[in-house]
Design a protein that fits this description.
globular; 11 helices; alpha/beta; binds S-adenosyl-L-homocysteine; seven-stranded mixed β-sheet
């Protein structure tokens, strides 16, 4: 098994110790990602150690939130949807760290969905699936709208647009977890209208608790009531005319 020293150390520091089965999956995931990335544009990160830090450990920043949410909502399994998952971030690392999660990975680009399907199969992930589609469309389908306990999205859009993509997928009481960059607080301020319109509230903007991941902050949102039926607006509008 290939050692993943950076991931092992950072995961422990986050209170998310990884067992041998999880580390083995992460190693295979890294190899598959870097291999496919030569043909399909999945990530700009190409250095193996950077994969451990910027993609894997960065995704694991969300694990403590999921654990706390699960304690408060013992309905099992927790259903998580990752919007604009791309190469699988943060959805696949979360599924590896918390195998009980039920994970749906959504992406609008067919080639990325082909990779996600391949990764799910290669890693033997049960209760995980990839869906090809745009969030604006899935958000109106009965199988997706209001069906999830948790929605995540990383590096997909600025927060007002992102909330319109993501929140219609949540049930009332559901949790939105959005890793953002250094201007997370400004983005959260920009998203006040979107939050009010979509009936959600900002819970926190938490800087990453580790020096090495200091560029990331987690925006935490709670869905308080169902999203009004007219949202998300038709494909393209949430980005073109953000709430
Ligand atoms: N979350 C990954 C990928 C980010 S790139 C990571 O952190 O590395 C953004 C991804 O979002 C792309 O794969 C793109 O296809 C997808 N995307 C953008 N807009 C979307 C939409 N409206 N619905 C679904 N997927 C979308």
């Amino acid at each position: 098994m290939t050692a993943l020293p950076t991931l092992t150390r950072l995961a422990e520091a986050l209170g998310v110790p990884l067992d041998d089965a999880a580390l083995d999956r992460f190693a295979r995931y890294r190899d598959l990602l870097l291999d496919w990335n030569q043909r399909v544009n999945l990530t700009r990160v190409t250095d193996p150690t950077e994969v451990e830090l910027r993609l894997f450990a960065d995704s694991l920043l969300l694990v403590p939130y999921l654990r706390r949410f699960r304690e408060a909502n013992p309905a099992t399994p927790l259903r998580l949807v990752d919007v604009g998952s791309g190469g699988g971030f943060p959805g696949i690392p979360l599924k590896i760290a918390l195998p009980d999660l039920d994970v749906t990975l959504v992406d609008a680009t067919a080639k990325k969905v082909a990779f996600l399907d391949a990764a799910i199969a290669a890693l033997g992930l049960a209760d995980a699936r990839a869906v090809h589609g745009r969030a604006e469309e899935l958000g109106h389908l009965p199988d997706y709208r209001g069906r999830f306990d948790v929605v995540t999205a990383r590096a997909v859009a600025r927060l007002p647009t992102l909330l319109e993509y993501c929140l219609p997928l949540l049930r009332p009481g559901g949790l939105g977890l959005f890793p953002k960059g250094r201007d997370a607080t400004a983005e959260a301020a920009e998203a006040r209208t979107a939050l009010a319109t979509l009936h959600a509230r900002l819970v926190a903007v938490d800087p990453a608790p580790l020096e090495e991941l200091a560029g990331t902050a987690i925006v935490v949102v709670e869905q308080t009531m169902p999203v009004p039926a007219s949202y998300p607006r038709r494909a393209g509008l949430p980005a073109k005319r953000p709430l």
